[in-house]
C-alpha cells in the first residue's frame, strides 16, 4: 500500500453568490424551486445503507404555505433507533481503520458537490422546507456547510500532527482513536449547515453516527444524505432516523455503547438530556462526551458615543434576518437616552420597507416562522407585551397564520429591564429595547450581565475606545461570541469559531479544532528502543 505524509488542500471560505437578477445562480435556483414544488417526494430513513419506509407517513409543507405538500417522511419507532445503533456499530471497525486521507477525501468531495451540482438543490430545499430567503439559504446550506467540511478536514490533520517530545532512546506517539461506541447527532431546524455538521464532524474523526434531525428540517436533511452517499460515505457510517426526541432518547441513553452526543437545540432539551445521561451513567462502557450548543438571549449594548444609524442597521439585520430564528439573533438592546430618538426613527423606517411573504418571491426579506407551535409561542409573547403596562409596541405586533406562519417583525420598548422578553429566548422576530440614562453605562452593563441565564452572542457599539474596552472587560462572560461595532449574528467558519457558555452550551466552538477534539480519545504510546535489563539504580551499587 502506498503511503506518505499528506497535506490537504488549504481551506478558504466559500464565496457567497449574489443571486442578482439575471445571474446564472438565480436561474438555477428558480428552476430547482419549481422542480421541488412540482413533485411530492417520499423520504425514507437511512439505516445501514437501507432506505427504510414505514406506514406512518408524515406530511412536509413550506412554513409560508402550509397547505402545499412537498412530500412525506416515514416516521419510525424505537425499533428503527435500535437498528440504526446496530448498523453504526457494525460499520465501526472498517470506518475507523480506513486511512484518514480517505475519510478526508470523502468529506472534501461532499463540499465540492455542495459547491457545484447540489448547490441549487440544497438551497431550494432549505428555502422551501425551512422558509429561508435565497440569501439566508446560501450563507447557511451552501457556504457554511461547505466551510464546515473543508475547515474541519484541515483541523483534523492538525490534530493528528500534534505529537509529544521524545527523550533519547524512546519514541512517544499519540494516536487519536475514535470514541468507543457510537455518536448520537441530534440536530435543530434552523440551520441546514448545523444539521450537516453535527454528524459529519464526528464521522470525520472515525466515529459512526445515529443522526436524528428536527422534523421540520427533514426535507433538506434528505438532500444532505443524498450528498453524503454520492460523496462515498459508506453504508452504516451515518444512519438517519425520523422519530420523536423522547423515542430516540429512550433507546440511545440506555445503550451501553452510547459514546457521545453532538447536540444543537434548546437549553431545556439539553438540560433534560444531560440529566438523563447522568442518571444512566453506570450503564455505559465509557463516560459519554456531551457537546451541546443551545439557546441565547443575545444583546446589543450601545454607548452614548455610537452612530445611531449603525446601531439601527445592526438591530434591523441582527434581530430580524431569518425571522429572528438564529440562536445568535439580537433580542434585547440597551440604548442610551441621547440616541434613542434617532435609533427609533431609523429602525421604524427600515421595518416599513421590509417585505414579508414566501421565499419563492426573492423580493421578500422576511418569510414565515417554522411551524404553528412556534408561531403560537411568539404570538403569546406579543400579546403579553400588548397587555403589559410596562411595554409599548414601537413597530409590528401583528401576525397571521391563515396561509403561512407569518409574524411581523416586532420592536418592543420596555420600562422594566427585567421584563419577560428581556430575559427569555423567544426565537422569533421580536426585539425588546430598554432605554437607559446615557450616564449609566457601567451600571447598565451590570444589569445586562445579570438579566438572563444565557451567554451566547452580544455586541458593543461605541466610538469611544475606553468605553469599548470597558465593555469588553465587564461583559467578559456574557457572550461566547462578542462583537465590536457589528451585529451579533453571522459568524463565519474559520473566522469566528461559534458557541456560548452559561445556559447557552458547552462552548465547544463548532467549526474549530476544539470541537473535533471532543470526538477522539487519544492513546499515548511510549516505545523504548533498548529496554533496561537490571532493576537496580546506579547509586544502589556501592555504599
Ligand atoms: N448555540 C447554537 O449554536 C445554536 C444553533 C442553532 C440553534 N440553537 C438553538 O436551538 C433552538 C431552536 O432549534 P429547535 O427548535 O430545533 O430546538 P429543539 O431543542 O426543540 O430541538 C432540537 C432537537 O432535539 C430534539 N428533541 C426535542 N425534544 C427532545 C427530547 N425530549 N429528547 C430528545 N430529543 C429532543 C428535536 O426533535 C430536535 O431534533 C433554539 O433554542 C436555538 O437557540 C442553538
Ligand atoms: N452561527 C450562526 C448562528 C447559529 C444559530 O442558530 C450565527 O453566527 O449567526
Q: What can you tell me about this protein's structure?
A:
- It is a single chain.
- With 543 residues, the chain is α/β, with parallel strands linked by helices.
- It is 38% helix and 19% strand.
- It has 16 helices and 23 strands.
- The strands form seven sheets. It has a seven-stranded mixed beta sheet with strand order 14-17-18-13-12-20-21, sandwiched between helices. A five-stranded parallel beta sheet has the order 9-8-7-10-11, with helices on both faces. Strands 1-5-4 form a three-stranded mixed beta sheet, covered by helices on one side.
- It is globular and about 85 Å long.
- The model has no long low-confidence stretch (mean pLDDT 98).
- The structure holds nicotinamide-adenine-dinucleotide and 5-oxo-L-norvaline.
- Residues 190-191, 326-328, 489-491, 498 line the site of 5-oxo-L-norvaline.
Radius of gyration from the CA trace?
Answer: 25 Å
Reading off the top of the CATH hierarchy, the class of the largest domain is best stated as Alpha Beta
Secondary structure tally, helices: 16
CATH fold topology of the largest domain: Aldehyde Dehydrogenase, Chain A, domain 1
What is the CATH-assigned architecture of the largest domain? 3-Layer(aba) Sandwich
What are the SSEs and their pairings?
Elements: H1 24-38, E1 41-43, E2 45-47, E3 50-52, E4 57-60, E5 71-74, H2 78-97, H3 100-115, H4 119-130, H5 134-161, E6 170-178, E7 182-186, H6 192-204, E8 209-212, H7 218-231, E9 238-240, H8 245-252, E10 258-264, H9 267-279, E11 289-293, E12 298-302, H10 308-320, E13 330-336, H11 340-353, H12 372-387, E14 391-395, E15 399-400, E16 406-407, E17 410-414, H13 420-423, E18 430-436, H14 441-449, E19 454-455, E20 457-461, H15 465-474, E21 481-484, E22 501-502, H16 513-516, E23 520-528
Parallel strand pairs: 1-5, 7-8, 7-10, 8-9, 10-11, 12-13, 12-20, 13-18, 17-18, 20-21
Antiparallel strand pairs: 2-3, 4-5, 6-23, 14-17, 15-16, 19-22
Helix pairs in contact: 1-4, 2-8, 3-5, 3-7, 4-5, 4-7, 5-6, 10-11
Bound molecules: nicotinamide-adenine-dinucleotide and 5-oxo-L-norvaline (A1AUG).
Family: Belongs to the aldehyde dehydrogenase family.
Pfam families: Aldedh
Keywords: NAD, Oxidoreductase, Proline metabolism
